[in-house]
Queue: 3 jobs
Job 1
Amino acid sequence: MNVAVLFGGPSAEHDVSCASALGVIRALAAGGHRGVAVGITRDGEYRLVPDEVLDKLRDRSGVARAIDDALEVTGPAVELRRGTTALAICAADDPTTVLAECDVVFPALHGPFGEDGVLQGLLESMRVPYVGCGVTASAVGMNKIAMKRAFAAEGVPVTPWVWFDVQRWRTATDPSALVEGLRWPLFVKPASMGSSIGITRVGAPEELAAAVEEALRHDSFVLVEQGVTGREIECGVLGGWTPEASVVGEVAVAGWFDYQQKYLGDADPMTVPAVLPDGISASVRDLALRAFTAIGGWGLARVDFFYDEAAGEVYVNELNTMPGFTAHSMYPKVWAATGISYPQLVSRLVELAFER
């Protein structure tokens, strides 16, 4: 297949997407596919990355930090159009000039614009097959408030939480009343953002205002969750009508798994498979599938959990419909441990795009 890998974009997760895309391009090549890299600038322009740029990066190894092993948005400006088979990548200054045609799109984009149903809607309108969840599931999976509601409707256990918008926050006479009923510490998050961007751990009431203002830099809606003392567990989901769950992995870090530790550290904090009681591993895998079904998922997702060992309870934290695909990312690692290599994984995702 000729696979258009879209990456970059205007969201705060631009750099993470650039790293994910290079991993996908390499895996596609190893699986016998041709990856065509289309970068999206921070202001929304599309650029076709030249093949010679990809050739220089394809076999590079030994980069310690995941965020440094990445593509760059470069090359001539292009437009995306419906082609004779699926997607036509045309010169922006002359749309009649087709620079490449692709059978399917792999949107290696994270965050708003790329992971929230916006790009999926564009591809649907052009009748172009694409990897991952559809419009509705992408939108629900990106918005943590809608996601929590979907989980609650299907009986998927989550930690106690509240939400409010910027208007309620600005006009509240007693801001602390907005989080009444939750036990400290709290985690304050933008409703629609990933990679731990905009998230703050709040240990006392006097820290709440600064945390909310940080979240509001990224979104007009804020989610506040009650903190859990427990282990951070992750599980991959892969499939269509009958999805499967991977083995379970664990993230072991000091504090919580923030952006710094995810992408800017030299150490690999992930253990795959996680050392857990058999019953807990089975519960995590079952809940991962239930969470995926709750949002109407298709193709792939990574589901993140908290395991409270003292209470013996497992909670779903959130679901990511386009998880990281960097060299250090959990999603390809848990599937490799399950018996599906990175190249096999991306090939299966391409197949699922056509099945849907």
Note: The chain has a mean pLDDT of 92.
Job 2
Amino acid sequence: MQRWSGFNLVMLAMLSLLLSTAVRATAVRAPTIPAIDPLTGPRAALNKNWIGLRSLPVDTPILVMAGHADSQAMAGAGTPGEAVALLGAAPMDPLIRDELHWNLLTAERVVALGRQRGLNIRLYVPPLRTIADADDPRTNWSVGKAFVQGGGYALEIHFDAYGPDGYGSGLIPPLRQPFSRLDESFAAAFGAYPANFRNGLGAPRRGIAILEIGKLEGTLEAALRNPASRDAALNAIATRVVQAVEAGLGSTASGLDRLLSPRPDGAGIVP
């Protein structure tokens, strides 16, 4: 018995060594996603406490909206950005915050590219820049909520605050339904916020996903403001968003696995 016990212990030790070697080899081969993207900057360093498992039909309609498009000149107008707030730059548009300016251009670029690639995707822009009543049927929140109730997926584009007030890029997932593979796909491409971020924001509580592209500062803001790099920066961002939609809806062969591979988005386009 002692001989067999010793033999078994030796075999167990060998098996443990083989398993640990295999785990280390897998870890070496596993794709890594940088904490700081060359274009969009840092990802939100917050705990992702959700998993998106619910599959969506490949033809799910997608509604894209620009965050703060209906809340100018009031609380919640969005960030002015580091360039305006700290560096003395003039606003991109004197009538609106710089965040809304870039939210609009990014949302438009995402929808244009998505349509080119055959997605069922559309844009909503409120008719007024200031709508005090959050439940007014013309607000992003009201239109997005109705769209989700009709079976679609609503996405609001944002740029995060500069400096210590901002967290970085990532998806704040919608809360009215079980988390989906499309939510997971955006998280793979941009990072993720916890589901209960700030105890549940107005848009997620209405079923609308919030996608923070990045903090409106530094390299990202400079690439957007510089006319020589603006188109390339917007195209890089829009391409990443559209690819996330395609992977999350299963309309590409490699799906989410492709998004998890290292990828120098924005590399070479930043001055």
Note: Residues 1-30 form one domain.
Job 3
Amino acid sequence: MNLTRRDFGKIALAGASSLHVPQIYGAQQAEAKPNISYIGGVQFGLQPFCYHDLPMNTDNRPILIQRMVENKLGMVELHATWVEPRFNAPGVSADEARAKSRQWRLTTGPDYYEKIKKEFADAGITIFSYWINIGDQHTNAEIDAIFEGARALGAKGVTGSYGLAVSQRLAPFPKKHGMFAGLHNHDNLSDPDAYSTEETFVKGLAISPDFKATLDTRHFTAANQDCVGFMERHHDRISSVHLGDRRRNNGRSTPFGQGDAPIIEVLRLIKDNKWPIMALLEFEHGTLLSGVEEVQICFDYCKRAVA
């Protein structure tokens, strides 16, 4: 039976009321279930921005881990806000906070990051990539420190939202640290520096063989680009997809299966071709459900696509 994206969405929503969410696993239980979200030949993970109701900070990291275990997601793209302390306290100027942040990065050793890696590993979760926005304000020493911290976390790469100009500057760093740098797209077609189209991705990937695309299906679709065609032509340069749904013509984000993003087609390309591309769930649509419930609906939709 051939099902459309919307058919998949109806099935997922119909099953939402019967969801059973297990209690948090201990390390021993996690070890008994390796590759917990490697399903149908696709490695699924999470961009934990999806837990919209959970503030992204170091204090909430244990809750993040618990929620990922509840959703049975064994891979994460970890945002720096879950790792680094914040220095923008009341009475601290932006310049002072920025200087404190840089100093923290330059003076924090690998032990700090390795402890965080263990927190996730004990729950059966692998840190695939480290998300942090790097810009002109970052010194070379600070960028080195970011890559070193990411490697200590066990991440394979550092990714974030930046454009072609910053990419030129980042070119030497991933190879130096034995990692990749991820280029993430948005839908801003008016900015020639931004990653938003196949053409701009090709320009960025040409800067360094150590650059990989982090293809955001929501933004690529909203920018009226061809996710499937891009993957067919550039799959060897894609490290992961941010998997979500959205309307074309810069339209709104939607629940999975209710927009124009080819989620099912993307997943089946990865599955059928055995491409080592991580499928990281990420959504921006509003919901009245808890973060865990909404993530589960999205995940179930995707699992049906590769069954």
Note: Residues 5-232+246-306 form a domain with the TIM Barrel fold (CATH 3.20.20.150).
